[in-house]
Amino acid sequence: MENSTLGKDGLFVKPLCIGTWAWGDKLFWNYGDGYGEAELEEAFTAAIAAGVTCFDTAEVYGLGLSEKLLGQFRLKTQQNIQIATKFGPLPWRFTGESVSTALTDSLNRLQVDKVELYQVHWPFTFLISQETLMNMLANEVERGRIGAIGVSNYSAKQMREAHEILAKRELPLATNQVRYSLLSRQIESQGILSTARDLGITILAYSPLAQGLLTGKYTGDQPPVGLRSLDPKFSRDGLRKIAPITSLLSKIGEVHQKSIAQVALNWLIAQENVVPIAGVKNAAQVNHNVGALGWKLTDIEVHELDQASRDYL
Ligand SMILES: NC(=O)c1ccc[n+]([C@@H]2O[C@H](COP(=O)([O-])OP(=O)(O)OC[C@H]3O[C@@H](n4cnc5c(N)ncnc54)[C@H](OP(=O)(O)O)[C@@H]3O)[C@@H](O)[C@H]2O)c1
After folding, report:
1. Which pLDDT value is given to residue 9?
2. pLDDT of residue 11
3. Confidence class for position 92, pLDDT limits 50, 70, 90
4. Is 299 exposed, middle or buried (0-12, 13-18, 19+ CB in 10 A)?
5. How far apart are CA 211 and CA 47, in angstroms?
6. 153/33 Cα distance (integer angstroms)
7. Which ligand 1 atom lies nearest to the CA of residue 58?
8. 195 CA distance to ligand 1 middle (Å)
9. Whose CA is nearest to atom 30 of ligand 1?
């Protein structure tokens, strides 16, 4: 499990990417309150020092600030990094050309000529059809501005359609980025994981720590700040409901001298063809999450966790 590829025969990465939604985001993540640019630069440096060089961002994160910060930090290192960003087919975008315009804007903010992975953020096809979207992306691969094509939040059917359109251009669909953790296993029951395996598409698992729930650090007396405090999953009842899972993670972690979060990430890595994207706000969180790499849960432990989390299928 030491290396994974993004898609069949795609880029090699460690099976962990760094999520940067919180980088510059004040709407959900409280950027500027408890962490800021200095902490994020330290997080970036810590990831690279640990050999974790894949970063996931999007044009909408921090309204462009996430891409800007990533671009700024990248300029200070000689190390090759892999950047995955996203295009939003939003209702005010009418034509295929908007893909090229949005990509140009992202490349400018990131200060690069090319991104390794360009993803369609949501499967919205109100105004731009799937056919047009995929063909515009294929054109950008041929132009050399993107290395590979990915999608996000796509169902099994939508993923298959995108795969078929790209196959006509002799290009693979490399990734589908979807919510996946021990507390969100719907991609297993909805056929997304199995379809991705059949088609050689890598699953990038977002919110792999269930936005902090699977670190065990939040309790009824210590709720998160910001919008998460309004989410019933973070309420006393919500936390009580997941206690059997965090207890099992903790028990398994004791055997391996690993934390709840590290075991939760390792369980994802143990699912074939899955690379978690863990969101971070500082170097300590990066260093902690990197502890999910380089070891393996036993098959019995994976099965125990599968059983304990079956309500989330
Ligand atoms: N494609 C999409 O639609 C989509 C949607 C959501 C996310 N994403 C991507 O996936 C990434 C990850 O998802 P996410 O940010 O929603 O959730 P996540 O990775 O499950 O949780 C991230 C949050 O958990 C806390 N945390 C992380 N590591 C920790 C550690 N070692 N110890 C303690 N706390 C820790 C931090 O917040 P606190 O310290 O505040 O608790 C961090 O911001 C995003 O950054 C983004 O790149 C994509």
Report:
1. 78
2. 83
3. confident
4. exposed
5. 19
6. 29
7. 47
8. 25
9. 285
- Residue written as tokens 């405090």? 229
Identity of residue 51: G
Residue to probe by mutation, ligand 1, list 182, 215, 274, 287, most atoms within 8 Å of CB = 215
Distances (CA, A) of 108 to 70, 114, 148, 175: 12, 10, 19, 24
The whole-angstrom separation of Cα 179 and Cα 206 is: 5
% residues pLDDT > 90 (the chain): 91
pLDDT of residue 126: 82
Q: Is 98 in the pocket of ligand 1 (CB under 6 A)?
A: no
> Which amino acid is residue 82, in one-letter code?
Q
Which DSSP symbol is given to 224?
P
Rounded to the nearest angstrom, the distance between the alpha carbon of 105 and the centre of ligand 1 is: 25
* The pLDDT value given to residue 221: 87
Q: Which residues are catalytic?
A: 61
278 beta partners: 18
Question: Within the chain, what is the greatest distance between any pair of CA atoms?
Answer: 55
Cα 268 to chain center, whole Å?
12
Determine which residue's CA is closest to atom 34 belonging to ligand 1: 212
pLDDT of residue 75: 97
The residue type found at 145 is R
12 φ/ψ angles, rounded to the nearest 5 degrees = -85, 130
Our answer on whether the CB atom of 4 is closer than 6 Å to any ligand 1 atom is no
Residue owning the nearest CA to atom 32 of ligand 1: 285
Does residue 1 carry a pLDDT above 70? no
DSSP string covering 193-209: HHHHHHHTPEEEEESTT
